[in-house]
Specification:
The chain is an alpha+beta fold. It has eight helices and ten strands. The strands form two sheets. A five-stranded mixed sheet has the order 2-1-10-5-6. β1 and β2 form a beta hairpin. Bound molecules: the ligand Nc1nc2c(c(=O)[nH]1)N[C@H]1C(S)=C(S)[C@@H](COP(=O)(O)O)O[C@H]1N2 and molybdenum atom.
């Protein structure tokens, strides 16, 4: 069975009635608890409950944050080191002065925000460790706009389950980099759209003008060159259907939690 196959039922379990169901069984069946088979059933139910609870707690925990002294002297740039659409190149030429982030899809009020508008919003700064599957890590300082503020401003539809990030680097004709996360990560306090790195403007090689930091997941989820954010009920509708460029191209896990 693939890892992806294992994850889906677990997600279903968390959102379904199973949690409430086993809770009810635990509450008032004294006669039944005399039965060994039924006691075993309850123990299993409780184990699932604890596991599910641990899973939820794990997802909302903060990634470690570090001090300035811990920052890596060099931070590798990986994957694309620039966007490469004609639009992106035009934005580079005028220093992103006319660039706008689009937020649309299943939202009540689609938004278009300039870099200046994003920078004027409340921001978060965090010194975190970036872990790439290729076997390197680096600690850097990021500042950016919390994604939840943007989603709240756009007003998500109740159907929204995932947030998709569309990027400006193409890996083949019609194959742009993209990524997607669920709402737990989208509303996580450390999930920001960073426009600053290590106290400077975000460099092009690290994703200018805007890149995702989703600190509880591996490097490939941290989309650089984000042009558009789309709320959706299902990431299977996009590109290769697996929720991200690496997920489509090389069967990487959609959920890359660390
Ligand atoms: N748009 C885009 N985002 C991307 C990539 C990419 O190639 N294109 N590479 C990913 C990978 S594998 C990693 S490890 C990080 C690297 O971020 P960095 O260049 O700031 O180190 O960006 C991620 N986001
Ligand atoms: Mo990576």
């Amino acid at each position: 069975m693939t890892h992806r196959g294992l994850v889906l039922p677990r997600r279903k379990f968390l959102t379904g009635a199973a949690l409430g169901g086993s809770g009810l069984l635990l509450s008032g069946c004294d006669a039944l608890t005399e039965n060994a088979g039924f006691r075993q059933f309850l123990r299993n139910g409780e184990a699932l409950n604890k596991g599910a609870q641990r899973l939820i707690m794990d997802r909302s925990a903060l990634a470690p944050e570090f001090s300035a002294a811990d920052m890596s002297p060099t931070f590798k740039a990986n994957g694309s080191v620039t966007g490469d659409t004609p639009e992106y190149n035009a934005h580079v030429a005028d220093k992103f002065a006319r660039w706008q982030l689009r937020i649309d899809g299943m939202v009540r009020k689609p938004l278009s925000l300039s870099l200046a508008q994003l920078m004027a919003m409340p921001s978060r700064e965090q010194i975190t460790r970036h872990d790439c599957v290729e076997g390197w890590s680096a600690i850097g300082k990021w500042r950016g706009t919390p994604l939840r503020l943007l989603l709240n401003q756009a007003g998500m539809s109740t159907k929204t389950r995932y947030i998709v990030f569309h990027c400006a680097d193409m890996w083949a004709p019609d194959v742009p980099y993209y990524e997607s996360i669920d709402l737990i990560d989208a509303f996580h306090p450390q999930t920001i759209l960073a426009w600053s790195m290590n106290d400077g403007v975000l460099p092009i090689r690290h994703g200018a003008p805007l890149r995702l930091r989703v600190e509880r997941q591996l490097g490939y989820k941290h989309a650089k060159y984000v042009m558009r954010i789309e709320a959706t009920d299902d990431f299977k509708k996009f590109y290769g259907g697996n929720g991200g460029y690496w997920e489509d191209a090389h069967d990487y896990d959609w959920y890359a939690g660390i």
